[in-house]
Write a structure and sequence with these properties.
The chain is α/β, with parallel strands linked by helices. The protein has one domain: TIM Barrel, CATH 3.20.20.70. It is built from nine helices and 14 strands. It binds (5S)-5-amino-3-OXO-hexanoic acid and zinc ion (ZN). Zinc ion binds next to loops.
Length: 275
Amino acid sequence: MATTLITVAPTGAEVSKEEWPQLPTRLEELLAEAKACQAAGAGMIHVHIRDAHHQPTLDLGLLRETVAGLRAETDLVVQLSTGGSVHDPLDARLAVLDAAPDSCSLTCGTVNFGDDVFLNPWPFMVELYEKARDAKVVPEFELFDLGHVASLRRLLDRCGLPWGEQVHVDFVMGVPGGMPGTPQALVAGVQALPPEVTSWSATGIGRTHLPVLAAALAMGGHVRVGMEDNLSYAKGRPVTGNAELVERAARLAVEMQRPPMTPRGARDLLGLPRP
Ligand code: KMH
Ligand code: ZN
């Protein structure tokens, strides 16, 4: 039976702990959420970390500790964000790979990001791609805009296949400045994917979360959920945590006859060796 990879993105770099105390910003909180999310059906975790003051950080020691903790306490595929926050310098974002995750995000182009700019110049994309391949880290190509699909084509032409020889992409939709979080935009994106792409997932930011989740499942894709992307369970009902978002995605996936993929299945999908 076909299965659905559910990736959870529990923290992100934009949401404030002060406003959202349930956001997992401490390592213990992240590990507890990760375990609950795995039990609910997640196969991979997309990780941003915070410092002692709950601010986004790319501190390498803390990243290493986080990777080790997640490996010790869960079976989840560990994906570190190389996007960080819009304020992080490119060299610190490249250095994330030194924490030796299973996977890393690799955004395929610069995009307006609310009032800010999420910078991903071409030379940075190529350097990150090559560094990931040398480090045996599997990139997940983040596509915030239709132009990013074309940049992925250019990247594959320039660099060849990534380590693991699978090409997994994630549409991040509904960011103010990127593509809208609509089924129509998702169809256009999927239709434009290069033939080398072996799997795709999608996530919708904010109120586009549910339409994108439903459209991705209907189209046979994989999904990403979590407090990085969405803070409401329903209109007027804030999320209590990440696990309930994973639980809902898992229920929908079961109903769609594509139940959640295990972490082991996720490793196979991404071309990662089994532990
Ligand atoms: N926080 C955003 C600026 C990624 O993780 O690679 C970038 C982001 C993408 O979240
Ligand atoms: Zn992220």
